[in-house]
Amino acid sequence: MKYSFNFGVVSRTGGTRPGAASAGGGGGGAFRIALLGDFSGRANRGELETGDALAKRKPIRVDVDTIDAVIQRLKITLSLPLGQDAAISVPIGGMDDFHPDQLFEKVDVFTELGALRRRLQSSATADKAIKEVQSWAGKGKKVRTPRNASARGAELPAGATLDDFANLLGRPTSAAGGGGKAAQQAADLVKKIVGPYIVPARDPRRDAMLAAVDTALSDAMRALLHHPDFQVMESIWRGVDFLTRRLETDSSLQIILYDLTAQELAADLAAADDLAETGLYRLLVEQPALDAQQGPLSLIIGLYTFEMTPPHAELLGRVAKLAASAGAGGAPFIAAISADVLTMLKDEDVHPMILDAWKQLGLLPEANYLGLTVPRFLLRRPYGERTDPIDQFDFEEFTPAAGLSAMLWGHGGFIAALLLGETFRKQGKKMKPGSILSVGDMPYHFFTDADGDQVALPCTERLINLRTAEQLTRRRFMPLLSMQGKPEVRLGSLCSLAGPWAPVTIKPDATAAAPQPAAAEDASGGDSPAQESAQDAELAALLAEIGGDSGGGGGEEGASQEPPASREEPTAADTPASPEEEEPMDPELAALLAEL
User: Fold this and answer.
1) What is the DSSP letter of 9?
2) Under a CB-based contact definition with an 8 Å cutoff, are residues 386 and 94 in contact?
3) Helix residue ranges, H only, 169-273
4) Domain that holds residue 422
5) Do the domain assignments include residue 97?
């Protein structure tokens, strides 16, 4: 059954432009790279704006010397659930604040844990501290970060429809911290964090108490570092740091940030069929072209990850139309596709409706302005004695149980931006995209197996062999390639969803009207209401299978609710495992090791 897709229309262009797409696009003088992402933690705060409010968002120019000042300007503070019915506040005032040593000093719960360690270590206070810690035995549950938690601000629900996107509302991260002073809340949280590790004993020993506190401290730090909201924030800023350190910027090559969540992008573009009426059109197309101090954009990097579903294809079609209108000759938009696509490389493994949706997306002329990378790359090595030691306490960030989800992965768009920026820097306006495809001096990690042998992992979260790279390229995705134990990442191809980047003429749509009503379509040979109902039912069944119960924000409060995520709610889970219990290895890590 053929589904009717709505990619929207653009009733006007953003300004004078020849209509020639290139991976680096844009005419004029400066090569301006726009990075779109949740830079201030808007999703964590539950903020979502569209239309006029979104159009007023200010672009922020950044370089290697101003990155800390930009972070300070955004006044970032994350509220993260940690433990049972508790929350912590995490201020981020610069790049150093992502490091465990700084978190240990600035986050109240770690300050309390540090004070407890000192009391246990001091002969003058140890006895009283031991009795106090013993009284916590059995309180609380072990703090863990749930597997496959949704990275809000950077991802959208896989089971959502275009209408769901239009009805998105902001929802802050659920964090029940209760009332009272922060210091008292932190002290109460320490009891719940340490309690699960305390074994009642008639003659408790200080060393045992210290070991329990250190274990609880390490688990709490891992839970914070690996919380999806924190990981997104650290990943996005370390990605900016990576780009600004490696790409020399000046008046001719600029990096501009737009503080914009995935939910805001989706809600704004899905709210109107005429995309020229959206806030994003004014923000990214009209305003840069009209501002002499800005100038048109050359390349847009969307720091978001999309799923291979029909509604995501519809949304990306709208993104492509927006990108085709930007800049002097269109500004290519590069984002990421979920690594789940690696299980969908053969047509027989993909639902026909999905195949049809992505085929129709690729047939759009504007798809020449749309590129998707996969998989992600490693931004830093995990903290640990042999990798990147910290000063405050003995800490090993990586564990086999946490596996790949415990490693900090970067968006592939940063690699694409770096390669295209370097190409422009060396070749200027007559640049040939694709002439530079490799990035060296990249971090990678060693896994120590049960026999004590070290196994080098690739720089990417998946090992893409030649056959898989060819299959991804046939799907017109851009694979990131890495060899085991080699500090290099290579972009396997630089292409759009329509094929190789090539000149294309885009004309304004003749009308901004929405798709014709069912009656009119039926009269001209289109789908009947019964056929449309069957299509909707088939899509609903498909999305429910992909993303769980995708009621599209249904339930008691209807469409006003945020569509159910395809992954777990991003809260730190509590698990009652015993201290002796050994957690199984992360399945994704096990699968990667099997491939090496």
Assistant:
1) B
2) no
3) 182-194, 206-225, 228-246, 262-270
4) 31-78+150-156+226-509+570-595
5) no
Q: Does some domain include residue 374?
A: yes
Average pLDDT rounded to a whole number, residues 559-579:
43
Contacts of 468 (CB under 8 A, 6+ apart): 342, 345, 479
Question: In whole angstroms, what is the distance from residue 547 CA to residue 556 CA?
Answer: 20
Asked whether 370 and 323 are in contact (CB, 8 A), the reply is: yes
Instruction: Report phi then psi at 234, rounded to 5.
Output: -65, -40
How many domains is the chain partitioned into structurally? 1
Estimate the crossing angle of helix 529-547 against helix 352-363, to 10 degrees.
100
- Of 125-134, 417-426, 494-503, 520-529, the poorest mean pLDDT is in 520-529
Phi, psi of 92 (to 5 degrees): -125, 110
End-to-end CA distance of the chain: 42
Pick the closest to residue 511 from 6, 7, 9, 4 (CA basis). 9
385: left (phi over 0), alpha (psi -120 to 50) or beta: alpha
State how far the Cα of 197 lies from the Cα of 211, in Å rounded to an integer.
9
Residue 96 in tokens: 């150093």
What does the pLDDT look like over 458-502, one tens digit per residue? 999 999 999 999 999 999 999 999 998 899 999 999 999 999 887
> What ranges make up the beta strands (E) of 530-585?
573-575
Maximum pairwise Cα distance, the chain: 90
d(CA 57, CA 45): 17
Six-digit token string for 254: 């600029």
Question: Tokens at residue 591, please?
Answer: 């699968």
Q: Which of 440-444, 535-539, 561-565 has the highest mean pLDDT?
A: 440-444
Cα dihedral 310, 312, 317, 323, rounded to 10, equals: -170
**Residue 167 forms part of a structural domain:** no
Structure tokens that stand for 272 in this block: 């109107």
Measured CA distances, 572 to 148, 204, 224, 534 (Å): 12, 30, 8, 40
For residue 399 the two structure tokens come to 């564990």
Q: Measure the CA–CA gap between 234 and 225, rounded to whole angstroms.
A: 9
Cα dihedral sign, 354-355-356-357: positive
Q: How many other C-beta atoms are found inside a 10 Å radius of the C-beta of residue 537? A: 11
Report the C-alpha gap between 477 and 370 in whole angstroms: 10
Within-domain flag for 163: no
CB-based contact 474:350 (threshold 8 Å):
no
